[in-house]
Write a structure and sequence with these properties.
This protein is an all-beta fold. It contains no helices and 58 strands. The chain is flat.
Length: 506
């Protein structure tokens, strides 16, 4: 199962949660350690809001200013000075080993990767790393022209290149695609080669196995737009408009929606469905054997599964597959009441509203949020929780034996763990389980300070906040760490950026 990771804000983390855990006694103390990653520099003002964590939450990079000069501080080391650093940078590579940022020197901008300056341009976009972190790409402005720069080498010269939903790497990092404008036409560039030009193209998508690439395109004929999908350079059938599209997880199937004469059709592996008023995004099961979508016909909504139209409802909201693809749950509205309906046709009790059904990793358990008497409840394994002002999406432990979720009672927040409520605080960030399901952790806000809470035990140290975008990372089953802002008793230059570590008992 993929580990769930949760981000929390620097000092602005909203009141979200807090528990003490059933896994440990309250009298226990944590084996905690605080290591300084970035300490204040004399004569340099560090912008705390610029702090960026690495994906593994072990490294920090931030922007600092001295006089009219700016520099990046990376794990406590001051990098080269520049006239300006782009506020969207620095950024880390997915493997946390590389750092990139945009820097201005004089009137020119450059991308600095691994402390090496790239070529100077009139402007540059935010760089994008490949999934394996070995490649990076960005857009460079050269007067009235633009070029794509891949690993420091320019690809083509165009009238325009949009950074929006562009610069796409394949999952295996071996392929790359982007769209550009030349002579008032748009062209998709895949692996350095240009496809044919169209009046308009949209963002490209690679299949999960990286073998295929598709993108929507539009041509004008007789003053009218015709939309179609381009699949591995081959044009599909032309329609009035194309909509949402998706590959199956195993890359063997492809589906997308289209509009024809104000009616909607789902195209699955080249075959058209019946016509509807509208259809939504295609949703594949994890094993790729099931494809479903919502379809609207007049005032009624249907779930269409493997081409078969189900019962009519006033509204269909969510659909979730179990990890093993054997089950699914949909939430539907009929006559102002909401129900959860499973694959075998079982209908749960009626509620005023409901949200986001989820399954446990072993696919044997499920939970969803519901509104009852204007209060929030969690329905887990068919059992309804007490009523609260708010509950969050349920989180199952990796071994599927435990479930926890946020609850709000009055102005306080807590969690329910296996149906039991634990300690409350003024605020907390989302909790998570360790890989072996034996531990849980989260951060909590109390008396104007943030704390790490592990197995229900609060850290001795309090923090100004936790770095925005950082995560609680478990170090296997031995412990965990996170990145925080710490203000020691004596701090003439300001707070430190630190790595908070907790070691578990053996």
């Amino acid at each position: 199962m993929r580990n769930l990771r949760y981000s929390f804000a620097l000092v602005l983390a909203v009141a979200v949660l807090l528990p003490a855990s059933a896994f440990a006694a309250d009298a226990k103390t944590l084996k905690e350690k605080t290591d300084i990653v970035i300490a204040p520099f004399k004569d340099w003002q560090i912008y705390l809001e610029s702090a960026k964590p690495s994906p593994d939450s072990r490294h920090i990079a931030a922007v600092a200013k001295k006089g009219k000069k700016f520099a990046v501080i990376y794990d406590g080391k001051l990098q080269a000075e520049y006239d300006l650093i782009s506020k969207e940078t620095p950024i880390f590579s997915p493997d946390s080993k590389r750092l990139a940022y945009n820097a201005k020197k004089g009137k020119k901008w450059m991308v600095v990767v691994d402390a090496r300056e790239g070529k100077a341009y009139d402007n540059v976009s935010i760089p994008v790393f490949s999934p394996n972190s070995q490649h990076f790409a960005y857009i460079a402005e050269k007067g009235t022209k633009m070029a794509m720069v891949m690993d420091g080498k320019e690809i083509g010269e165009y009238d325009g290149i949009s950074p929006q939903h562009n610069l796409i790497f394949s999952e295996d990092s071996k392929r790359f695609a982007f769209h550009a404008i030349r002579n008032k036409k748009m062209v998709m560039v895949v692996d350095g080669q240009e496809d044919r030009a169209y009046d308009r193209v949209s963002y490209p998508v690679f299949s999960p196995d990286s073998r295929h690439v598709v993108y929507p395109a539009i041509v004008k004929k007789g003053g009218k737009d015709e939309g179609f999908m381009v699949y591995d350079e081959k044009e599909g059938t032309h329609y009035d408009k194309t909509g949402a599209f998706a590959f199956s997880p195993d890359s063997s199937h492809f589906a997308y929606s289209v509009k024809v004469n104000n009616q909607a059709i789902m195209i699955f592996d080249g075959k058209e469905s019946e016509k509807y008023t509208d259809v939504a995004i295609p949703m594949f099961s994890p094993d790729s054997k099931t494809m479903a979508y919502f379809a609207i016909e007049g005032k009624e909504t249907y779930m269409v599964i493997n081409g078969k139209k189900g019962d009519a409802y006033d509204e269909v909201k969510d659909m979730s597959y179990s990890p093993d693809s054997s089950q699914y749950t949909i939430t539907v509205r009929k006559n102002d009441k909401w129900y959860a309906i499973t694959k075998d046709g079982r209908k749960g009790p009626a509620y005023e509203n409901m949200y986001i059904p989820v399954y446990s990793p072993d696919s044997k358990r499920s939970a969803y949020i519901a509104i009852k008497d204007k209060k929030w409840v969690m329905v887990c394994d068919g059992k309804e929780s007490p009523k609260y002002e708010y509950v969050s999406v349920a989180q199952f432990s990796p071994d599927s034996k435990h479930v926890m979720y946020m609850v709000k009672k009055g102005e306080k927040w807590g969690i329910s763990l296996d149906g039991k409520e634990y300690a409350t605080y003024d605020g907390v960030a989302l909790p998570m389980f360790s890989p072996d399901s034996a531990h849980n952790a989260y951060i909590a806000y109390e008396k104007h300070a943030w704390f790490m809470v592990v197995d229900g035990v609060k850290s001795k140290e309090g923090y100004v906040g936790f770095i925005k975008g950082s995560q609680i990372e478990f170090d296997g089953n031995k412990g965990l760490h996170a990145l925080a802002i710490h203000l020691p008793p004596v701090a003439p230059l300001g707070p430190n950026m630190v790595r908070v570590s907790v070691e578990f008992d053996k």
